[in-house]
Specification:
It holds the Pfam family YCII. It comes from Splendidivirga corallicola. This is YciI family protein. With about 100 residues, this protein is α+β, with helices and mostly antiparallel strands. The protein has a single domain, classed as 2-Layer Sandwich (Alpha-Beta Plaits). About 30% of the residues lie in helices and about 20% in strands. It has helices spanning about 10-30, 75-85; strands at about 1-5, 35-40, 45, 55, 65, 70. A two-stranded antiparallel ribbon has the order 1-5. Strands 2-6 form a two-stranded antiparallel sheet. A two-stranded antiparallel sheet has the order 3-4. A hairpin with a 5-residue loop joins strand 3 (about 45) and strand 4. The two termini are about 30 Å apart. The relative contact order is 0.25.
Length: about 100
Amino acid sequence: MKGDNSQQASPEEMQQRMHDYMGWMKKMTESGKLKAGQPLEPSGTLLKDKETILSDGPFLEPKEIIGGYVILLADDINEATALAKDCPLLAHCEIMVRPLINVPG
């Protein structure tokens, strides 16, 4: 999930968003679709190459903040997209749906 308008929301709005999101996560868990999901720390390091290391603000690219990830079990990209469309945070941020590559190991 990626967004940039969280700073514009009041504390009450943020609390409601989190409540709605947690309800969606509970629904995904109860349906057996949730495999994993975590928020990400707001700070980090961006490696451009072996010599170029960037640490910027608390966010590396404030216009495109990646707040976390969710891994859902779906039969295909269409089902995953349908599940993501039901996420209440979609009203406030972008959600990128991508399949995982199965790497033998």
